[in-house]
Specification:
heterodimer, A: 9-stranded mixed sheet, two-stranded antiparallel sheet, 7 helices, about 30% helix, about 30% strand, B: alpha/beta, 5-stranded parallel sheet, 9 helices, about 25% helix, binds flavin-adenine dinucleotide, binds adenosine monophosphate
């Protein structure tokens, strides 16, 4: 029987661009180039490796996001995923993480799955909680923040390097996993992959297709409210000296003046 | 006054510092009630009482150690139901965030993660967060349900505020998912004897410029002279020169010490994301154009192999 893998990928503003907030205090997506979150490339990569090891597997990449988020899906398809699902609806604008988890869980159930693979965090929101929320909503085990993962005989295993210990984890499928950037470099799409991706199916779903109401999501339906966003004042220009042989001593003098020594 | 639940992060009964900071913040919005689970839970009570916990709800069972996250969510939910708090505060560790998020969905609440400050407001607690690699500061609230908020280390001062800290047993019924993910084995991280990276008042970090695992001894020597923790950039970690557990940045630890010293680190946005809120920033880099110099209070353009050992000697000399 085929192993059905769903990879959740997010389309995010480029971290090296000038990211900021729109007037309604949502992330501005117009003025900065978007791309597939780099941390989700690791999720696609691990899904591809798991699929290679399985007798028969199918990888669906899933995103909840605006029109342009199709770019993220294309990139994942060009890396080797089989098909894509794009949840897109004007009413989704401003949805927070609790709402996003609701939408993703519905879309995952509709798609059908044995294994959900996520990145460790999105590079814009950086919450790192969505995989745990998906497990809660789907009522399946969470096997998250893995730096190593494998699937064998309906069991997922992995290593989680935590704050105080490194743990070996194990759960039966179906399950939700998330992988860190320690899990192994993601492949670059090949030319062949890029060409093939153009022909792979991308299904679009809206809230109605998922039996969701507009008031359960979006800015109005959000479980949290951002009241203000202010640019952090630029740090006042510091003192910069060139080392002419006394740099370490000068630095010590500064640290002493600040009472660090 | 309304009660505020504080989830306790501890290792065998030793309360970790971020939890004590949470008690300071909790007292701004209500009376702190602590929830401690797992081996040593009851041993946390004296420290928690000393810092303001009026009650300490404790539970221990093999499930807490043998299975991932969910048993702890079950316990926090039991405490939530027993107390009906005005807010739930959890330390912002990777695990803390997961516990908090799952609780939020269960109780129909919103969640705010990685707050760096918390105040009482007219419509519930107001959380300050940093966004986009700390280039923005936002203020936000949970607008549905009981606020569930995770707070980063070093967000508040630890304050003594003696309270009763009465220990009460918490009855926990484990959910069907509690045993879903088995912890097959656990290898505790070896202690280096240095302060915890996220809790340290001073962090000394090395990057690609350190140029080799053996050269990290120079960084460690400076750290030890200052009583600091050691950090590393991803480039240094990826090269295998220093453990990933010491990585500072977006996919490593986020630190906010009084003093951050970067040596041989260029200051890429992903690195800045993890250290930009440090109070005082110092850099040593041989490239005067390195972006890290945009952040510094004091910078030395020079070779770290000259500057760092000289600094270490000078610190030691001054300490006598
Ligand atoms: C999704 C994603 C997540 C990431 N997460 C992180 C993260 O968590 N943490 C992180 O750090 N990075 C992260 N990165 C990587 C980041 O983009 C940079 O590549 C990395 O921070 C560079 O490390 P560095 O500054 O040590 O190396 P470099 O950028 O190569 O800089 C080395 C610096 O050392 C200086 N130097 C060299 N020799 C000497 C000498 N003898 N004396 C003095 N100075 C010297 C050079 O002038 C240079 O400025 C991430 C990247 C991505 C895409
Ligand atoms: N809008 C989205 N669409 C698809 N997947 C997402 C979305 N947001 C988050 N994810 C997934 O959840 C992970 C963690 O996200 P977060 O909790 O937002 O940091 C990401 O790495 C993605 O795998």
């Amino acid at each position: 029987m085929s192993l059905r893998i769903v990879v959740c990928v997010k389309y995010v503003p480029d971290a090296t661009g000038d990211r900021h907030f729109a007037d309604d205090l949502t992330v501005d997506r117009d003025d900065v180039d978007g791309l597939l979150s780099e941390l989700d490339e690791y999720a696609v990569e691990q899904a591809l490796q798991i699929a290679d090891e399985a007798d028969d597997a199918e990888i669906t990449v899933l995103t909840v996001g605006p029109e342009d988020a199709k770019d993220a899906l294309r990139k994942a398809l060009s890396m080797g995923a089989d098909k894509a699902v794009h949840v897109e609806d004007d009413d989704l604008h401003g949805t927070d993480v609790v709402g996003t988890s609701l939408v993703l869980a519905k879309a995952i159930e509709k798609t059908g799955y044995d294994l959900v693979v996520c990145g460790m965090a999105s590079t814009d929101g950086t919450m790192g909680v969505l995989p745990a929320l998906l497990a809660e909503r789907l009522n399946v085990p969470q096997v998250t923040l893995l730096s190593e993962v494998s699937v064998d005989g309906g069991v997922v295993k992995g290593r989680r390097d935590g704050d105080t210990a490194s743990e070996q984890l194990e759960a039966s499928l179906p399950a939700v996993v998330s992988v860190t950037d320690q899990s192994g470099e993601a492949r670059y799409p090949s030319f062949k992959g890029i060409m093939a991706a153009k022909k792979k199916p991308v299904e679009s779903l809206d809230l109605g297709d998922l039996d969701l109401d507009a008031d359960e999501v979006g800015l109005e339906g959000a479980w949290t409210a951002v009241d203000s966003a202010a640019e952090r004042p630029a740090r006042t220009a510091g003192t910069i000296v060139k080392d002419e042989g006394e740099g370490g001593k000068q630095l010590a003098e500064f640290l002493a003046s600040q009472k660090f020594i | 006054m309304a009660e505020v639940l504080v989830y306790v992060d501890h290792v065998d009964g030793a309360v970790r510092k971020p939890t004590l900071e949470l008690l300071t913040l909790a007292r701004r919005i209500g009376e702190p009630v602590a929830v401690a689970v797992g081996a040593g839970a009851e041993a946390t009570a004296p420290a928690l009482a000393e810092h303001g916990a009026t009650r300490v709800l404790t539970a221990d069972a093999p499930e807490f150690a043998d299975y991932l996250v969910v048993p702890k969510v079950d316990a926090l939910q039991a405490a939530y139901e027993a107390v009906s708090p005005a807010a739930v505060l959890v330390p912002s560790s990777a695990e803390g965030k997961e516990i908090a998020a799952r609780l939020a969905v269960r109780i129909g609440s919103g969640i705010i993660t990685d707050a760096v400050d918390l105040e009482a407001g007219d419509n519930g607690p107001v959380a300050t967060q940093s966004a986009f690699a700390a280039s923005f500061t936002t203020k936000s609230r949970v607008s549905k349900g009981t606020p569930v908020i995770t707070v980063k280390p070093n967000s508040a001062a630890v304050e003594a505020a003696p309270a009763a800290g009465a220990v009460e047993a918490l009855a926990v019924t484990f959910s069907a998912q509690a045993t879903g993910t088995k912890v097959v084995s656990r290898t505790p991280r070896e202690s280096t004897g240095r302060p915890e990276l996220t809790e340290a008042a001073i962090v000394v970090s090395g990057g690609r410029g350190v140029n080799g695992a053996e050269n990290f001894a120079i960084i460690e020597a400076l750290a030890d002279s200052l009583g600091a923790a050691v950090g590393a950039s991803r480039a240094a970690v990826d090269a295998g020169w220093y453990p990933h557990s010491n990585q500072v940045g977006q996919t490593g630890k986020s630190v906010s010490p009084q003093l951050y010293i970067a040596s041989g680190i260029s200051g890429a946005i992903q690195h800045r994301a993890g250290m930009q809120t440090s109070k005082t920033i110092v850099a040593i880099n041989k490239d005067a154009e390195a972006p890290i110099f945009d952040l510094v209070d004091y910078g030395v353009v020079g070779d770290l192999f000259d500057v760092v050992p000289q600094l270490t000697d000078e610190v030691q000399a001054r300490k006598g």
